[in-house]
Amino acid sequence: MHRLFFTTLCVLVLFTSMAHALDLGENIQLHGFASQGYINSHNNNFLAHSRSGSIKMSDIGLNLNWRPFQSLRIGAQGYYRNLGDYNENRIVLDWGVIDYHPLDFFGVRAGKVKMPLGLYNEVRDSQFLLPMVFLPQSIYDESRRDSNLAYIGVGVYGNIACGKFGDVDYHLFTGQTDVPDESQLEQNNVNSAMGIIERNNTLPASKQNPLIPDSYESLDRESDDLYGGALVYNTPLGLRLSFTLFHSKASLYLNDSSQPAGNTLVHNRFVFSAEYSTDQWLFASEYSETDRTTTMFGSTALDGPTQSWYVMVCYNPVESWTFSLLYDEFYRMKHDKHSDERPQAEPYTGWRKDIGAGVRYDINDWCNLKFEYHYVDGSAMQLSVINDDPKRYWSYFAARLSVVF
């Protein structure tokens, strides 16, 4: 752990020294970022085994963009991340695109493309564009970053000028999502499947589900039928309004079976967003629902919409300092907010109510430091690989040092 910490700090120093030293020509741009953080939580773990403090909060990204013609861009980003037990422990292709943009109002992107989800998903790794260490978790769940960050497919996008009324950005897409085998979400799926198999084997033979295998060997997750889009209206008054909508389906296959053991069908997920900014203030709020049906071994495990929303206020009294306040809510079941619907589950596992405060200090143009504290009621969104017996009331502190070039 200490080796990882000092290695990341060395990378931060290296990036700092390179920040103003790269010149690859007019048509090629090389950029990167690195950060090292710390998490300490009380009662529940958050993303890592953080109740005794954790420095396993590192990420490094390096992206290269080549523009052979004015209307054509080819780019990709390599990414390394270690966030507690949610880590890929290897360098992956975070995104990679061929982008043809002949007109302001029309362009096409193909490859692994950042997914439009709310106002901030496409910039969630750009620490210099974000006021706090983490985005509001009800919309931008960090434990599910990989499945929400990008789609593998094709999208059309553009900007439509509206004269004195501002302009509108749009992005329509279709494809599939990608969840690495070493992600925390995938390990949570494995643990759930193994638990179901174990419980089924303890039942009398007459009561066992014949669709459940006798043992666990492997699990594969496949995504298909993903499509959606986003509209963002940029007013001339500092106000941005956005609407995102998409549909998706993911299936789980056990032991190399050709028939899925279960699937999650997201009938629709939408996000309404609003942001108003001035020289010193930023006000942001987003509301989302995800109407989904989850089936496993022939039975419906979950059916109905989630509900999530937040409000955030940021104040920038002087150029280097930003102070933020956040209130964030998530409900696993919109129409039954005080129940989890899972047998023997505590009711508070069905909601998450988060009050947070943060401070950001911009050391210079390429380095910043952030601190934040959160007090949380409820344990919804927690994965069992991190907390097998979550408590209702808990809190966490996070800090992050970031550099960019």
Q: Mean of the pLDDT scores?
A: 88
Number of helices: 3
- Could you tell me the radius of gyration in angstroms? 22 Å
Q: Termini separation (Å)?
A: 26 Å
Explain what this protein looks like in three dimensions:
This protein is mainly beta and 405 residues long. The protein is globular and about 70 Å long. It has helices at 2-18, 145-149, 184-202; strands at residues 28-42, 57-69, 72-83, 86-87, 92-103, 106-114, 150-161, 167-176, 219-234, 239-254, 262-277, 281-296, 299-305, 307-318, 321-331, 351-364, 367-377, 393-404. Residues 15-21 have low confidence and may be disordered. The two termini are 26 Å apart. It is built from three helices and 18 strands.
List the helices and strands and how they pair.
Elements: H1 2-18, E1 28-42, E2 57-69, E3 72-83, E4 86-87, E5 92-103, E6 106-114, H2 145-149, E7 150-161, E8 167-176, H3 184-202, E9 219-234, E10 239-254, E11 262-277, E12 281-296, E13 299-305, E14 307-318, E15 321-331, E16 351-364, E17 367-377, E18 393-404
Antiparallel strand pairs: 1-2, 1-18, 2-3, 3-4, 3-5, 5-6, 6-7, 7-8, 8-9, 9-10, 10-11, 11-12, 12-13, 12-14, 14-15, 15-16, 16-17, 17-18
